[in-house]
Hints:
249 residues, alpha+beta, 16% helix
Amino acid sequence: MRILLLAALMASVTATTSAQAEITIKPGPIPGVTSQRDNVRGTPWCEVIPVMGTTPDSLGHIYNSSPVDDCTEERADKLDKAKLAAEMKVPIVLLNVGRYWTFDKVTLFTAGETLDFHGVKAQWAATMTLQDMKNLLGSKSYTSALITRDTEWLYQKGKPVYLLRAPEGITWIMQVYSKKIDKTLTLETLDQLGSKLQLPAGWTFETKVLDKDLALQPRWASGQAHIMWDNLGNAYQGCGFDKACAYIP
């Protein structure tokens, strides 16, 4: 009898642990759900990206911590991709960590559920195709990719922006800096970034102080933003492709 009771107790504990380990996800926009946060310049964030569907139609659902949590690098280091994939019952989970905003206000006009990923809260915010994610998260720096999101990045008047000018007339505005490759990067040293970048032929780096607010909204164009990473993992949004940027600084 004692053995049977012990076995039943262990089975109960195992079932409870298993249930707690599951993360039920319902990715996608929720009608009426929005998010907004001021004073985000320099704040840390990360993304948990469960990839769903079959190749070549796999889609990454991007859960971003910024609207609901500050995901420091120390906290992000505790995220386990394989464990998260098992808990969400998806083939693969990608992580985008060690990131800091370089604009001032973030608005999600369309947003989704907020979940807890191993202690880090993040909200559904966007989608990307698997190929575009490979371009960004892989080794193809200075390669344009598309992300579908309904957001506004706002750069305030009197604040600096960090620009890459491409010879074909596209201006890439830094939206994120990363310390994953260069630990010395800070907001205060970004104006010296030009000497560290391995820019394509004809490209130039520039720092500019804005004389008026600058808003970037993909909803003004196709609903997609053109984004790119440099060789240090810093991220940019492209202006000049369409009307997603209020103006080109």
